Amino acid sequence: MNVRVVPFARIREIVGSAELTRAAAEGATAGEVWGGLAREFPALADLLASTRLVRNGAFVRPETALCDGDELGLLPPYGGG
Q: What is the pLDDT of residues 39-61, one digit of tens each?
Protein backbone atom coordinates (compact mmCIF):
# COMPACT_ATOMS: atom_id res chain seq x y z
CA MET A 1 0.00 0.00 0.00
CA ASN A 2 1.07 3.63 -0.42
CA VAL A 3 0.82 6.35 2.20
CA ARG A 4 1.14 10.06 1.49
CA VAL A 5 3.29 11.68 4.19
CA VAL A 6 2.91 15.41 4.82
CA PRO A 7 5.59 16.78 7.17
CA PHE A 8 5.34 20.21 8.76
CA ALA A 9 7.82 22.79 10.13
CA ARG A 10 11.08 21.26 11.44
CA ILE A 11 10.19 17.81 10.11
CA ARG A 12 9.69 19.24 6.62
CA GLU A 13 13.13 20.84 6.87
CA ILE A 14 14.71 17.53 7.85
CA VAL A 15 13.13 15.49 5.04
CA GLY A 16 13.54 18.30 2.50
CA SER A 17 10.08 18.00 1.00
CA ALA A 18 6.51 19.16 1.59
CA GLU A 19 5.15 15.73 0.65
CA LEU A 20 6.47 12.18 0.41
CA THR A 21 4.92 8.91 -0.73
CA ARG A 22 6.04 5.78 1.07
CA ALA A 23 5.21 2.14 0.42
CA ALA A 24 4.18 0.19 3.51
CA ALA A 25 2.99 -3.32 4.23
CA GLU A 26 -0.78 -3.83 4.30
CA GLY A 27 -2.00 -2.94 7.81
CA ALA A 28 1.16 -1.01 8.72
CA THR A 29 0.75 1.44 11.58
CA ALA A 30 1.46 5.15 11.70
CA GLY A 31 4.37 4.36 14.02
CA GLU A 32 5.83 1.88 11.56
CA VAL A 33 5.74 4.46 8.78
CA TRP A 34 7.35 6.95 11.16
CA GLY A 35 10.03 4.34 11.99
CA GLY A 36 10.84 3.91 8.32
CA LEU A 37 11.22 7.66 7.94
CA ALA A 38 13.43 7.82 11.05
CA ARG A 39 15.73 5.16 9.54
CA GLU A 40 15.86 7.14 6.30
CA PHE A 41 16.30 10.50 8.08
CA PRO A 42 18.12 9.78 11.39
CA ALA A 43 17.54 13.33 12.67
CA LEU A 44 13.86 12.37 13.12
CA ALA A 45 14.60 9.59 15.62
CA ASP A 46 14.41 11.82 18.70
CA LEU A 47 11.26 13.65 17.60
CA LEU A 48 8.61 10.90 17.85
CA ALA A 49 7.71 11.60 21.48
CA SER A 50 6.91 15.22 20.64
CA THR A 51 5.38 14.75 17.17
CA ARG A 52 1.63 14.44 16.63
CA LEU A 53 0.54 11.94 13.98
CA VAL A 54 -2.51 12.87 11.92
CA ARG A 55 -4.31 10.32 9.73
CA ASN A 56 -6.61 11.91 7.15
CA GLY A 57 -7.09 14.99 9.34
CA ALA A 58 -7.60 13.25 12.70
CA PHE A 59 -5.00 12.84 15.44
CA VAL A 60 -3.98 9.21 15.95
CA ARG A 61 -1.64 7.15 18.11
CA PRO A 62 1.42 5.39 16.65
CA GLU A 63 -0.34 2.00 16.85
CA THR A 64 -3.16 3.14 14.54
CA ALA A 65 -3.32 1.04 11.37
CA LEU A 66 -3.17 2.84 8.04
CA CYS A 67 -4.89 2.03 4.76
CA ASP A 68 -3.82 2.39 1.16
CA GLY A 69 -4.05 6.03 0.10
CA ASP A 70 -4.10 7.46 3.63
CA GLU A 71 -2.47 10.80 4.35
CA LEU A 72 -0.19 10.85 7.39
CA GLY A 73 0.56 14.33 8.70
CA LEU A 74 3.56 14.85 10.96
CA LEU A 75 3.12 17.82 13.31
CA PRO A 76 6.01 18.82 15.55
CA PRO A 77 5.34 20.78 18.74
CA TYR A 78 4.15 24.29 18.17
CA GLY A 79 3.25 27.26 20.28
CA GLY A 80 1.21 30.31 19.86
CA GLY A 81 -0.18 33.22 21.67
A: 999 999 888 889 999 999 999 99
Residue 51 · residue 38 · CB < 8 Å:
no
Residues, the chain: 81
Q: φ, ψ for residue 65 (rounded to 5)?
A: -75, 145
Whole-number CA gyration radius for the chain: 12
Which DSSP letter does residue 70 get? -
Q: How far apart are the C-alpha atoms of 35 and 32, rounded to whole Å?
A: 5
DSSP code, position 29: B
Domain 2-75 sits in which CATH superfamily?
A: Beta-grasp domain (3.10.20.30)
Of all helices (H) and strands (E), which one includes residue 22? strand 20-23
* Model pTM above 0.70: yes
